[in-house]
Amino acid sequence: MFEKxxxxxxxxxxxxxxxxxxxxxxxxxxxxxxxFDGVEVLRDVDLEVRExxxxxxxxxxxxxxxxxxxxINWLEQPDRGSIHIGGQRIGVNDAGRPMxxxxxxxxxxxxxxxxxxxxxxxxxxxxxxxxxxxIHVLGKSKAEAEAHARELLEKVGMSPKADxxxxxxxxxxxxxxxxxxxxxxxxxxxxxxEPTSALDPELVGEVLSVIKDLSAEGYxxxxxxxxxxxxxxxxxxxxxxxxxxxxxxxDPETFFTxxxxxxxxxxxxxxxx
Amino acid sequence: MSNxxxxxxxxxxxxxxxxxxxxxxxxxxxxxxxxxxxxxxxLEGSRPRLTVPLRVFIDGMxxxxxxxxxxxxxxxxxxxxxxxxxxxxGVGALAVYHGCYFAEIxxxxxxxxxxxxxxxxxxxxxxxxxxFFRLILPQIVMQTRPLLGNQLIYALKDTAFLVxxxxxxxxxxxxxxxxxxxxxxxAFIVVIGFYWAVxxxxxxxxxxxxxxxAKRGFxxx
Lengths: 273, 221
Ligand SMILES: Nc1ncnc2c1ncn2[C@@H]1O[C@H](COP(=O)(O)OP(=O)(O)OP(=O)(O)O)[C@@H](O)[C@H]1O
Ligand SMILES: [Mg+2]
What we know:
The complex is a heterodimer of chains A (273) and B (221). Chain A has 273 residues and is of the alpha/beta class. Chain A is 36% helix and 23% strand. In chain A, α4 (126-136) packs parallel to α6 (171-183). Chain B has helices spanning 3-9, 11-44, 48-62, 66-76, 86-111, 115-123, 128-158, 170-181, 184-215. In chain B, α2 crosses α5, α3 crosses α5 and α5 (86-111) crosses α7 (128-158). The complex binds adenosine-5'-triphosphate (ATP) and magnesium ion. Adenosine-5'-triphosphate binds at residues 36-37, 41, 59, 61-67 of chain A.
């Protein structure tokens, strides 16, 4: 279902493909550490995501995957280390102080996040969920935002539901709207935190195939998932977290066929059984 | 002339009392709504230096009989060289008193507001003010609509207390007519009719608004 096609990855001219040089770094994470109540949840994490790449983060429950993802857009504040998005440091300004809220919001808007539980705004219909932030955060005109939103809804297959309210949608439909909502900010990187974990099994496919289309279009993405076949098909890099440490970082072929650590081998075996 | 005929001939007095009540009611509940929203916004901040006194103030107001607050504003403030006429004292007292009730209703709903929606807003680059007014407040108002409707009815009834501080509203009109012609029963029955009519109209409006929120999944009226 998710076969990787190298030629697909050659980027067409889309909003997402704003690379100037092929090796540009979209997200750079250095020496990141984070504790909750004295327990280290992330330990000296280093990770680089190149523009146009898809990085999936695997690991067992409680290993710190969500925390890592949420540090990238500063929903969690790390204790140590730095994160740059498109060369711009998030959370800390040039003087080494905590960023003023407006500036933080601006840097945050360079990332798009898709949550496990969708988190659509229920008082707004589908179209307005997608246009809300472009209009009121980016300051786009209503007409421009709506035209763009309709394109994105088309892309995720939700055009017919533009006027529906979230409470009338299935989980898979909600998640596709949430993806369109995040894309509408034209983010430099999309962050997905277990986007299909709250879905009925028969709805998982429709969401994964939308994400796969995005990867083919050249979007930069960091994805936390438990869907192994999907991770293998879509990733450029697979990262394995264990108790807050990155213990394996490899291309998907190596990761899934010849992992260097016993822990990952065990993890993959368990998944097969 | 029968008692009812007397009242009919005094209909202008009732009518102007009614208009005055509606004016006081409309102005004070609008102000109360704004005060309630403003207080909720201030409570959003995590600075206890602001939120703790605010909570104490809100609770203090809610525990105070309305009549005493009206007295205080009208008879007590002049001691501090602040003089409000009866009408403004009444509107002010109603606005502050019911504003605190609105704030408390909103605060209760805010406690159960899904944190994921706030995170989604932050992730999309919203700052506090826009997030509050565009995403949080509209939902809280839709969700608390039945409680707000109740509170409006309390506020309407509280306008009647203002007769005590000499505001010339509906109850004052009935009071003066019943005093002049000694027909308390009929005079007050008429007034009850007015209050009921307004309450029923408000109920209907609130129900209609319910359809708006039900479509968005907030309740099932
Ligand atoms: N806000 C918080 N306060 C305290 N502890 C937290 C908080 N968030 C996460 N933790 C703890 O940090 C650890 C890592 O959590 P995290 O949510 O990052 O794991 P995860 O890998 O995403 O797990 P899952 O697969 O279950 O989603 C867990 O032990 C969790 O209990
Ligand atoms: Mg998680």
